[in-house]
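Entry 14. Structure prediction run on the chain below.
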Amino acid sequence: MKKLKLNAWQVALVFKNGAYLRCLTEGTYWFWANEKVYVYDMTMSFVAPVELNILLLDEKLSGLLEVVEVKEEELVLQLENGLLKAVLTAGRYTFWKSVIRNEFIRVDISKPEIDERINKSWLNKSMVMAWVRTFEVLNYEKGLLYIDGKFRELLEPGTYYWWKNRISVQVYRADMRQLQLEINGQEILTRDKAALRINAWAQYKLEDIQKALVLNKEYDKQLYVAFQLALREYIAGYAFDELLEKKDSLAPFVLEQVKEKAAGLGVEVLSFGIRDIILPGDVKEIMNQVLIADKKAQANSIMRREETASTRSLLNTAKLMEDNAMLWKLKEMEYVEKIAEKISNISVSGNGMLLDQLKQLFVSGTKVKNE
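Output returned:
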């Protein structure tokens, strides 16, 4: 015989010749040599040495065990003293009823939604992540939730979780910030068949994400085409020379034309501008020649205006000098002063007043000796 002492929170299962006999709790026991004893710590998990259904026929043992059955498309979250311990998948599990407080939260994963009983912090644990789909919508985005191919709801910024199962879950995200659309290399003919290449830009932002992504396919490409057609409509309506005169009204026209169509796409157009208007080589050369000729004409006009003004000034001066002898004398002295600035020495011969001599000198051509 052999002796066995069981302490508190210990349980023994006794088998004889492979057959289950009984369940023993705290105490001292003696066993025959042909009896086999399995001792369990009730603070640890229980693993049945034989078919569990056979053991559960013993009411005493059954009262000490808690049996958890998990069906297909179910998960059971096991909590020990309020802390997540394990995730139980389809099968049967047994736990001792002991000082350890076990809780079991049963969830149906046949539906993607995660109910409020589930603590969000558990979903980021490695033991749970294998069963969870995670989507993040950034703070400058909004998202559209599709479940099983059907639009469900609009998602604000945040982190979202769904159970993994056969049902598809998709989140389409859209940037809600101001965006820029480049409209480059547009080859457009004017009404008189002049080929122009236009480079333009537009700034816009999404106003209605549901309208942009659910009711329209590739809204950004549709917006591009709307700008392209508005540009062609405006430029094709004018001859080249008319277009150059009305180029300042091009951007406002296109912006006004596109706004209504953009609203149907769930988009608000904020601004539009022309970056470049590129002319063909021969047209560019002609325009340069026209520009040079225009500038030359402007320069000639300015020179003629200056000459006319100068002549008019001389005429006015001459009329004043004709009527005023004193002004005539002053003018003579002014010219004498200007000439004297360029002559170092002047020799004057003859009698009379100096001023009269100088007058004779410059008026009559008297000989001047420059030393």
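The longest helix spans residues 281-323.
Filed with the rest of this week's runs.
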